[in-house]
Inverse folding.
């Protein structure tokens, strides 16, 4: 994104109408330069033209702010919170930086956002949450970390429920509301040494109105669609940092939450007939919970029960 488009991004966030002439005077550039920069923001489905009157944001938004995020956090929790306007993928970029305790990166948009199994996570400008947090564990915690992903999903679901969002979790790491996808979690774990394990946690959450009709057709939803009002992402980020930090401390102390019991209360498909499939196979059965290591428990028609780990598997309601 050009420097001028970035400056316009911050100027237009209130949703007020600005004429092309006033913007050109404000920035000391030509109307043509303003037009080009506005078109960059239009590519992100953020700005609209109002007849001959000028330009305004399609909706008011609160830009990401490192200071606002850190203002409510204990400074000992993280090394830094990095806020960007655009990035290829927060998960990819955060992996390249030095780490002491914990590092957070958030961006207004991603040009190559990733979901599970190499899928693209659509990341339009300023509409949603694109969040990555990189943390460390002692190597002794590695054996228990297979359950971290569902534990985090459950914790995020319970947090959203506390905000009056009727969220449920769909194995292994999607957040659903009324059968539509609200958020996804992507976790990448690696052993850095015999003493340390690193984890990168990526969270994408739809916040403002959906930018693409195709999202609605593919059963996506957003905080705005559910409640009529979007979250302040800065407050949301601070809350998620605290949530992840608390969960990390539980695993470090070998006192992880009871995900078996919590899953049954919060699963979108618990006790329902489901399809579990990969590129090479399909399994039909009933979801009856998860094991304490995070494996999905499926009861087959013959009454047998089998555990499944995520890998390339995807879960759907049977239809």
């Amino acid at each position: 994104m050009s420097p001028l488009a970035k400056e316009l991004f911050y100027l237009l966030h209130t949703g007020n109408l600005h004429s092309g002439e006033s913007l050109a005077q404000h920035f000391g550039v030509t109307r043509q330069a303003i037009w080009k920069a506005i078109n960059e923001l239009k590519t992100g489905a953020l700005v609209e033209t109002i007849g001959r009157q000028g330009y305004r944001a399609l909706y008011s938004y609160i830009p990401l702010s490192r200071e606002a995020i850190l203002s409510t956090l204990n400074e000992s929790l993280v090394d830094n919170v990095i806020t960007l306007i655009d990035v290829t993928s927060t998960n990819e970029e955060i992996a390249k930086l030095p780490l002491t305790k914990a590092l957070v990166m958030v961006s207004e948009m991603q040009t190559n956002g990733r979901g599970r199994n190499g899928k693209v996570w659509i990341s339009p400008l300023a509409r949603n949450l694109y969040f990555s947090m990189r943390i460390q564990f002692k190597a002794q915690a590695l054996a228990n970390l297979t359950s971290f992903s569902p534990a985090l999903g459950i914790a995020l679901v319970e947090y959203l429920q506390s905000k009056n969002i009727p969220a449920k979790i769909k194995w292994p790491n999607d957040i659903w509301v009324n059968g539509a996808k609200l958020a996804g979690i992507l976790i990448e774990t690696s052993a850095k040494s015999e003493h340390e394990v690193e984890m990168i946690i990526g969270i994408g959450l739809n916040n403002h109105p959906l930018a693409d009709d195709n999202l609605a057709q593919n059963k996506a939803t957003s905080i705005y669609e559910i409640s009529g009002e979007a979250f302040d992402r800065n407050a949301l980020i601070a809350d998620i940092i605290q949530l992840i930090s608390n969960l990390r401390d539980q695993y470090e102390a070998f006192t992880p939450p009871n995900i078996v019991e919590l899953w049954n209360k919060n699963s979108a498909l618990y006790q329902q007939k489901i399809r579990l499939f990969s590129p090479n196979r399909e399994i039909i059965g009933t979801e009856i919970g998860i094991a304490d290591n995070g494996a999905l428990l499926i009861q087959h028609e013959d009454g047998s029960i089998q555990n499944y780990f995520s890998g390339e598997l995807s879960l759907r309601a049977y239809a």
User: Anything to note?
Assistant: The mean pLDDT is 90.
